[in-house]
Design a protein that fits this description.
The structure is a homopentamer of 366-residue chains. Helix content of chain A is 52%, strand content 13%. Chain A has 366 residues and is α+β, with helices and mostly antiparallel strands. Chain A has two domains: 2-291, 2-Layer Sandwich (Beta Polymerase, domain 2), CATH 3.30.460; 321-366, no CATH class. In chain A, helix 6 runs parallel beside helix 9, helix 7 (191-210) packs antiparallel against helix 8 and helix 8 packs antiparallel against helix 9 (255-320). At the D-E interface, helix 1, helix 8, helix 9 and helix 10 of D face helix 5, helix 6, helix 7 and helix 9 of E.
Amino acid sequence: MKHAQNRRPFRRRPPIGSAPGTLAPPDDSTPTSVRLVGYSADAIEQTTIVDSDALAAFRARWPVVWVDVCGFRSMHIIKALGERLGVHPLLLEDAVHLHQRPKVEPDGERLFLIVRTAPGSAPRIDEGATSIATDQVAVYLQPGCLLTIREHQSALFDPVHTRLQVDGAFIRRHGADYLAYAVTDTVVDGFFPVIDDLTDQVHVLEDDVLDPRTHSSGVSIHRARQLVSSLRRTIWPYRETLFALQRDRHGAITEETRVFLRDTLDHSVQLLEAVDHLRDTMTGLMEVHLSLESQRMNEVMKVLTIISTLFMPLGFLAGVYGMNFTNMPELHTTWGYPALLAVMATIAIGMLLWFWRRGWIRASDP
Amino acid sequence: MKHAQNRRPFRRRPPIGSAPGTLAPPDDSTPTSVRLVGYSADAIEQTTIVDSDALAAFRARWPVVWVDVCGFRSMHIIKALGERLGVHPLLLEDAVHLHQRPKVEPDGERLFLIVRTAPGSAPRIDEGATSIATDQVAVYLQPGCLLTIREHQSALFDPVHTRLQVDGAFIRRHGADYLAYAVTDTVVDGFFPVIDDLTDQVHVLEDDVLDPRTHSSGVSIHRARQLVSSLRRTIWPYRETLFALQRDRHGAITEETRVFLRDTLDHSVQLLEAVDHLRDTMTGLMEVHLSLESQRMNEVMKVLTIISTLFMPLGFLAGVYGMNFTNMPELHTTWGYPALLAVMATIAIGMLLWFWRRGWIRASDP
Amino acid sequence: MKHAQNRRPFRRRPPIGSAPGTLAPPDDSTPTSVRLVGYSADAIEQTTIVDSDALAAFRARWPVVWVDVCGFRSMHIIKALGERLGVHPLLLEDAVHLHQRPKVEPDGERLFLIVRTAPGSAPRIDEGATSIATDQVAVYLQPGCLLTIREHQSALFDPVHTRLQVDGAFIRRHGADYLAYAVTDTVVDGFFPVIDDLTDQVHVLEDDVLDPRTHSSGVSIHRARQLVSSLRRTIWPYRETLFALQRDRHGAITEETRVFLRDTLDHSVQLLEAVDHLRDTMTGLMEVHLSLESQRMNEVMKVLTIISTLFMPLGFLAGVYGMNFTNMPELHTTWGYPALLAVMATIAIGMLLWFWRRGWIRASDP
Amino acid sequence: MKHAQNRRPFRRRPPIGSAPGTLAPPDDSTPTSVRLVGYSADAIEQTTIVDSDALAAFRARWPVVWVDVCGFRSMHIIKALGERLGVHPLLLEDAVHLHQRPKVEPDGERLFLIVRTAPGSAPRIDEGATSIATDQVAVYLQPGCLLTIREHQSALFDPVHTRLQVDGAFIRRHGADYLAYAVTDTVVDGFFPVIDDLTDQVHVLEDDVLDPRTHSSGVSIHRARQLVSSLRRTIWPYRETLFALQRDRHGAITEETRVFLRDTLDHSVQLLEAVDHLRDTMTGLMEVHLSLESQRMNEVMKVLTIISTLFMPLGFLAGVYGMNFTNMPELHTTWGYPALLAVMATIAIGMLLWFWRRGWIRASDP
Amino acid sequence: MKHAQNRRPFRRRPPIGSAPGTLAPPDDSTPTSVRLVGYSADAIEQTTIVDSDALAAFRARWPVVWVDVCGFRSMHIIKALGERLGVHPLLLEDAVHLHQRPKVEPDGERLFLIVRTAPGSAPRIDEGATSIATDQVAVYLQPGCLLTIREHQSALFDPVHTRLQVDGAFIRRHGADYLAYAVTDTVVDGFFPVIDDLTDQVHVLEDDVLDPRTHSSGVSIHRARQLVSSLRRTIWPYRETLFALQRDRHGAITEETRVFLRDTLDHSVQLLEAVDHLRDTMTGLMEVHLSLESQRMNEVMKVLTIISTLFMPLGFLAGVYGMNFTNMPELHTTWGYPALLAVMATIAIGMLLWFWRRGWIRASDP
């Protein structure tokens, strides 16, 4: 039962009927760390803070500031940061309640995004994985400042931090909206290796199912299909979310950054097509598995039928001449026994010819 | 037949062709109780009334009044309340005719909502439940007043009443539209534990179906799928209803409350995704169940074929030498019997090797 | 072949390429009767006419006139009425050509509706019914006058006529558009008892299919599914038609009547959901039926395999000691026979244990 | 292989990369005939021409002219006619390249339509037909002139020509757009008898599949489904095409003719519904066929199991007492033989009772 | 494993998190060749360049210039050309990153298109092909200049080059947008022979599956379905892309060229319909294959059942009279043996009659 409970989709929610906007830290949350990065095209400053007081001074010094929060243990820091940055309490609640689906919510001149990041590697189909574990990242964009909130410490945004280090780099010459794009793009592109890996695994599974020598079961196809479904449910909202960003031309995103976001949208469409292809493959695989099962059964039944059809008449004949009637003249002739053997051989050969004509026996068979 | 009649979807309707707006109390309705709650940010008053006369005075005293009606026995009270609050007769008819689907109907400056509440716990799949029993709540929102009409007395709105007790609470500082949101949100969130529980049950069923040692039947999958379908039909209209509330920007709902309703809309989308996931699981489960059935049949057939193929030729040989021909020289040699036994053993071993090469026998078999 | 011809969907059409607007009475049409009802809030007059001359005087006398035509034998009367009321020839052709699907066509300030009425009772699934027979009603609404054209005399509109008798009744205080609503609502609501009855029948069929003791066939599920499909095809266009009436805000329908029509639209959506539920049930039922068939086959195969596996080795042993070799020393020992019986018993018990371990035999079995 | 090539969908195209607007006559085209019909309400003139010179004079004489072209052998005449009537080269190319799908293309004040005509009779399912052969008709409408181009000479438009002969007929009192409607309507209505006939055939096939005494194969269902699919692909674009004509309110079609076209649109929707019904029937039929196959297998297996279960134990007993042990005291008692026969009868009756209790044998059985 | 890796959909991407706009040449790229074609209606000049310097002079000389780039080895030339022509870095990145899906992106007054070209011939179903290998072509249209970028040297655009050679040809009298159309049309039309060929192959496969004498396996249907799916994924985006070109009326394309593009759009719809037809055929084929498998099993089982049912009772009788009871009076009568043979014959004939009545044996049978 414990196993089943772990698969519940909504296990960490505030009690029903409680006031909205309540921030309840999950029991097993990691320590909260807040990393501040301020930069202009020419300079960059980076620091780690433990309360929200340093933020105002930092924002004053730098044209663009990135507040990168990891871990939910100290919910009061997150709350304080949210208040200072003017995040709506409901959005902040969304940010720390996990199991949100990717979405975008305009909030006046600001933008709030929920994205989910790919795991480091694809789950193993052959170990029975049926769902994919993603982490939630909340992205809050306002002029000159980007706030990102993640549950776990991870190396996810390291490439972005690295690109920020280069003086005069493209990313440094643009505003917080381009930084938001860079973060989103990194998250979306993180799914490519997962799908590559899963595609490899699905092809191995496919080879396994189609191999007539192995006895794969429908269960592994079922499990793999659930895994692909789980991946699809994660990727599916990206297209909608990124398309809404494109279409709504929200003021928080400049025309120039929008061109780049269109690229990210293209990537999300490619991801979705790859997942849909996997899903189609799984559906076809189940069908072909059933077809192969039924073909194997046919083979087995043919062997049984051939054997029975061959030996039942012969056995009957032997039974007849094993009877103990006194008056069975054939028994006492010299040629009776060899003649019967000849008859039996004829019947057997006739049967085999008939089977061969029906295609039940092939030369290559035995 | 009585059983079947209980599953009729439309069993309590007025006669066809009767004038609309007729209020017919169902035969087994519970006594009607009317609870009035009036509040401002600083004070709250609560009372129970038996006729509609007290309402006007109450509304004059308080900026926001909640009229919470339970039970349909005294239809005249409901009718009188409806008239005093200016509810359109057709809407009042909808409110007391059960089996409405969730919907929203704007009525000038007012809003009429039908919602359905989750049962306290999920039905038991293993007890053969095929549908989910929901209660209907009609919500009628007008400036300064909220009317809710339910068939059964229940603890459903107790959390809202509790939140109302706190002086200066967020809910007390807002209008009737926020109260309508609080009620709707409570109703929608009530489905989360039901889906959690159902997910647990489905996973137990899944483990059961995939376990090769148990002999689960397709019937329980069918029943569970019907249960999930029933749940889906209940939740499905919520998204549409809440989306219409969002989109139409009806005057009865302030911008501020609309932000909260968007949250409820998100929840309804999450519920729908969880139910769709359950449905996909059930469909896949039926397929894998059929695949396992066919695999088991294959196993059974292989045993039969191995046994028959092994013993039929041997039995035939024994039959031949059980014949009573006078002229069977082999019978009378000293080595005849042991030689035949040797031939039989050779045939048996040959057969087993052939089966092993085809993969029908494995080392691990038993 | 005659049977098949009766199921042709388009068997009563004018010849292809003939000019449109041709009124061809079907061969087996019932006599035409025309009933005129004129009413105001205070008075009502009712008469039956045989030609169209009386109509003008009647319309002059009463604010609202209902021309209720049944039967197609005297096509000239229908044509004359149509001309006097200014019905477009094509619409009149639609009205008398049966097998139209429900639709609404605005015609300037007028409205033309085709609806189809439910049969008095649901067809019997257990008698192999595969389609539902509906009657067509054409409704032509213009200011102050409603024309309805039906093929058959029926009690369908009797409740409306009854409600019209009451002086000062709601229906009498409104225009022809409310009368059109009353007629349409009566037609739509007529499907509720049919679906109730069909739901009962489907549940009986379901119980039958799921009962392991009965041998239901897939054919009855197929037939029932066709019946449900047929019902769905009839109800499906109602939603679209009534929604178009709502959305297009045609001048012929007042705001007040539109509120009532929304109610009818709700009913059509409820009907459609109930039919879709039936359809899903039928699809699931076919799957579970196939699953049960395959389970039954498994049971049968297991019995066969157990019996064969038990008796084939034993029979072989008996055969061996039935051979007539001279030199079979076992045959002549005193303990040979009982020892062989003991060996046979051991083999049998071993086999049974092996079956039990594989789960093929259960304590509760035979 | 030759057979397969005939089913290629695109076998008569100009070489890839060739300039568009090239008119290549197919090799097996029929001789080109051009029929001119000019008419007003009072008079009509009809002639056959061999080059395009006569056209201009004819158009000057008559308010409406119909140029009806059949056969593609003399492509230069078609080209000359097209040039005189100002048809865009690409549209002319479409007109003579067969295998176009129905579509409408506005060309300034003119309209270009491709329609496909039904064959004279439905293909025979029982002869293995898998697709429907339609002819292409290009319709080019401009003020005062209608050009129709068909590949084959056929009686298709004869009813329209007949209606044109009547002085003062409705069709004569209207413009070229009404003539275009008459032509289109004739083409669309030509599918009704085909679907009627196909429906008959499908019902015969259905009766055949459901009859337990016949051994229909899934192949004929597959073939029939392909035929229905082929018909659906032909009819499907009509709805879209005719709806576009309705919606776009192109100037070439008067309001009055548009009302008639709506009727044709209704017909195309009815056709589509009838085809969809056939398609659903075919899908259900395949399922029920599989269900019946599996039921028949169950019957066969039961017979085998009953026989084996009955005779294997009895045969074993007979085998035991056929053994040649010296020390088998039962053999030498007087009652041994009848006692064994009694035991055998008891076993047989017990088995049969057990089968009967499991429902494997019924009173009505053989 | 190596095999599986080759099927990864996204194997040549820049590292995740790297700055966008990075041009990384694939390892196995072919040498870069750049072909310049400049033309007016009267003259044409053609040359091959190795750096981008010659481009400016060329563009000055000719009203329309086509820059046709093949091969990715010298990425710096492509980059230089892109810069000179003002291509956005992201678009240039798209052009050289393979595995893009067809799309159109407006870039101010310019248009960027990705198309994928058909392979020279359809992959062989009977060699187990499961996907189609397409080449990517990037098309960049700006006033007076067309840039095309392809990975591989191929004869793909040779027909266009040939048409350009003709002085005063239609293509020469139009702008770069018509050239872009010619290129796109050539690419789209290249799929026609592939689908023709695949249709032939599918029909051969179909004949194979439906032939009762061959033992086709579900695996080849599965493989072919994957191949068709792969083709569909390639063709699918064309419709959308070409429709967007039509709808958006981008300034880079003149009205005249748009008419031609509509023709290309029609072709893409035809392609899609042909592929969808193939897909439906494959789905139906799998079903009918399963139906045939089950039918074959039925045949096999019937043979087994007939043989067993025939010989088991006879064998039992023979066994009874093979028993060694002393007191079996029948054994010692003169008529015992022939009488038993007669009884056996009667039983056998009765059985055969029963089988014949059940339809298990037919006159035409073996």
